[in-house]
Amino acid sequence: MNDVASRFAAKVFNLATMKQRLPKDTYREMLRCIGDGERLNLDVANIVANAMKDWAIEQGATHFTHWFQPMTGITAEKHDSFISPNGNAGGSAPSGIIMEFSGKELVRGESDASSFPSGGLRSTFEARGYTAWDPTSYAFVKDGVLYIPTAFCSYGGEALDMKTPLLRSMEAIDRQARRVLKLFGHDNVKSITTVGAEQEYFLIDQSIMDQREDLLLTGRTLLGAKPPKGQELDDHYFGVIKPRVQAFMRELNDELWQLGILAKTEHNEAAPAQHELAPIFTTTNIAVDHNQLTMELMQKIAHRHGMVCLLHEKPFAGVNGSGKHNNWSIATSDGVNLLDPGTTPFENAQFLLFLCAVIQAVDDYQDLLRISVATAGNDHRLGGSEAPPAIMSMFLGDELTEVLEAIENDAAYGGRDRVQMKIGVHVLPRFPKDSTDRNRTSPFAFTGNKFEFRSPGSSLSMAKPNIVINTAVAESLRKFADVLEGADDFTGALHDLIRDTIKAHKRILFNGNGYDESWRIEAERRGLMNLKTTPDALSHLLDKKNVELFETHGVFSAAELRSRYEILLQNYVKVIHIEAETLLDMVNRDILPAVSAFSAKLCRNAEAKTAVTGVACGYEKARCREISRLTDEIYAVSSTLGEAIHHAGAGEDSLERAMRYKNDVVGAMGALRAACDAAEAMTPKAEWPYPSYTDILFSVK
Ligand code: ADP
Ligand code: MG
């Protein structure tokens, strides 16, 4: 693939393509549309649509689609062909077709929204939903279809998707950041948030997958005895990549590159069969679209290689689950990273102010950050000593923490020549950015010039955490700008503001081991929230301060937020419900018959052997007793689970229902699994109905 450079973004209608294909003034209009959010008039849209269509046809496209991200968290598409009948005036049969695509079709689409979750926002009789072109994310061709990234909203203009609030949150943070940047003398710059999403995933053999009902229906194993070997030897992490996986990665990279996705790093992760792909960061909106495409292509390409890509947060008990680290920063349109400590006192002051904005945001909206990553699947990861705990805290590293402490206490700071840090007067020391300064246990870690939010699970739409981060930081910046814009002595006010923010929010800073039980106790003492499960977290979504935050910045109306609350709770309930029903189905139809047959066989064997030989037959009898006992237990707990499901689903209140699923159904599933796993451990392979963990985790050779 020595032509990577020429193939890169070959399937993307990006600025370079537009420059080549659009008349000069149309191209200029497009730049204004993309850069400043100005609307295209219909004449211009027609020209763009036509050029886009011609280009797409050259790439092999016959159809176009408005590609959107409904609240299911995945993407949706409906294909329309470019064909239009030619010469059928008067109702006669067409003599042929022409390929057509109008500005109107590019800019806006209408689709039946009734089967997408709306959380009560749209009654079924108002089934219409609209898709609106998002020109900031480029159109692309994939599988013979021109994909046009769009936002999706109801007839009344309410957001029914992930992209609309994300774009709104980017505008919100830009609005406030500009006010702050202006105070530092940057008059005509825009701010842009950037994201790089590190994606973890598992690859297993397709034939093994097909034998597991739980993996097929829920994406994770609902039972499975611990294998003799997991990740104890640390021999997978960064290990040699197997040829089959390598072939998959090569094809994946090639397809991602053609779509302009900056796939950069790939390696084996901690658990057997686990891998990671990290792209180079880009603008948030594009990073989110790209991550959706990455997840889709991973699954599609794995199939071509006889494998399945599992994106579930916790496919296997006992080894690590998969996360998706959200690296986040904010930069100016001139390309200056505002979370990069500067080289002059003034730049340093600006850096510290933006840093404080993030610190305040994470502390004030711990609950929203936790909610933004809350899914039934991710509940298995957070707090399991493999991913950060459910308690939100920030890691800044020793150096930066010392600087902040010095500012807070007006104390001297520095290595050799200790100086009293005066904001706007002194230069900060350069912080070493070496990788030893990492804290894998921290949910929100500063890594030199960006923050890494480590809580998101592998299947999450990255729109969710970024909507919260952007809006919460926008709120800090709004408050900061309010104070500073009114100040007579800017440097003095800035110094006080930074010091006061550190004082008020230092409880959120924690450099220690987040996995340790002592941190849970310490966090409680500090008054930090510990929202262990999805329902616990969601019970705070509609808290007054949260509704106010989103309303103030125009990111969600109260009605939109309520609809998300309903959808998230319903989704939690549905996921657990499907898992519980799947487990019951496996137990009733496969496991109980298998263990019953095996114990009966042992019993018959023991009787027959004793009769013939007079030997006691200890193995057969003991095993038979033990398995019979487990069979009864499995049977009893499966009834308990059945009843729990029945009771949990009753009633109208979504939160109460979710709480019952969490407390009763999840609990019974755990007990049922434990009994099944104990039985599996003493049942011959040939008698057990499913491939074992060893079969699955080491299936790709
Ligand atoms: P680290 O060594 O901290 O893991 P990497 O350079 O490997 O850093 O980056 C990890 C991820 O963070 C990559 O996806 C990278 O593109 C992304 N990243 C780097 N800088 C930024 C930034 N300024 N904003 C957002 N993401 C970033
Ligand atoms: Mg990282």
What does this structure look like?
The chain is an alpha+beta fold and about 700 residues long. The chain has three domains: about 160 residues, Roll (Ubiquitin-like (UB roll)); about 375 residues, 2-Layer Sandwich (Creatine Kinase, Chain A, domain 2), CATH 3.30.590; about 130 residues, Four Helix Bundle (Hemerythrin (Met), subunit A), CATH 1.20.120.1560. Helices cover about 50% and strands about 15% of the residues. The strands form four sheets. Strands 10, 11, 12, 13, 14, 15, 16, 19 and 20 form a nine-stranded mixed β-sheet that branches. Strands 1, 2, 3, 6, 7, 8 and 9 form a seven-stranded mixed β-sheet that branches. Helix 9 packs across helix 10. The radius of gyration is 28 Å and the shape is globular. The model has no long low-confidence stretch (mean pLDDT about 90). The chain binds adenosine-5'-diphosphate (ADP) and magnesium ion. Adenosine-5'-diphosphate (ADP) binds next to strand 10, strand 12 and strand 15.
